Amino acid sequence: MWYSELSSTNDLAAAYAERGAREGCVIIADTQTAGRGRHGRSWCSPPGAGLYVSIVMRPVPRVVPLLTVAAGVALAEGIRAATGLTPVLKWPNDVYVGSRKLAGILAEAGSTPGGAQHVVLGFGINVLPAAYPREIGERATSIEGELGRSVDRGTVLAECLAALAARYDDLQRGGPAIVLDAWRTFARPMLGRPVEWDGRGGIERGIADDIDGSGALVVRTAAGRERIISGELRWI
Questions:
Q1: In the chain, is it the N or the C terminus that has fewer CB atoms within a 10 Å radius of its CB?
Q2: For the whole model, what pTM was predicted?
Q3: 40 in the Ramachandran plot: left (φ > 0), alpha (ψ -120 to 50) or beta?
Q4: Are 121 and 231 within one domain?
Q5: 138-161, pLDDT tens digit by residue?
Q6: ∠ CA(218), CA(224), CA(227), 5° rounding?
Q7: For 17-74, how does the pLDDT look when each residue is reduced to its tens digit (9 = 90+)?
Q8: Do residues 51 and 137 share a domain?
Q9: CA pair distance 127, 162, nearest whole angstrom
């Protein structure tokens, strides 16, 4: 379903999911007035400048931790197929070209009053250059800005949805190994870089090394290997 304007595609998709919408229900908006990313951050959604999409999913429980990983792979593959760009994946949920962010992913779990579980998988892709707030504009890029030519948003959307369907099927049917290997390929430029995060004793630092079978980031530290499951991670 396409809307010219929504407060948040994830919020509407969640409302549909709670009312029993079937898996695969897709909500798309031309602009969002209250789009959001991880940790409640706002997601700038200028009219006509991007793709703002949310999908109702009803995965088996064992694959839920890897949905964001699979979605990152799918967006990278879809963007590459539609445009020729080769994005880089940055754990846990960002898609980059060079040093600038091109797309982001937000997965939110929920349930219906009857107890059926669902996940709303949302993503935003910057397609056209836009007038972003300064703090965002310094970090963001767009497909057309990178290519120097126009692209068809419908083609980008179709390729990303097709790739997402394929990677979701990999998770549901074949296990995570093929998805994890694909993630490592797109994330290779980021692995080996220093990171920091807020640990129990203050700021901790290490070198991003890999992801494990559950999608956690594995970091090498002076004390050994550490698994980062969630929270705020900063790439140095």
A1: C
A2: 0.92
A3: left
A4: no
A5: 788 999 999 999 999 999 999 999
A6: 25
A7: 999 999 999 999 999 988 776 656 666 778 888 999 999 999 999 999 999 999 999 9
A8: yes
A9: 18
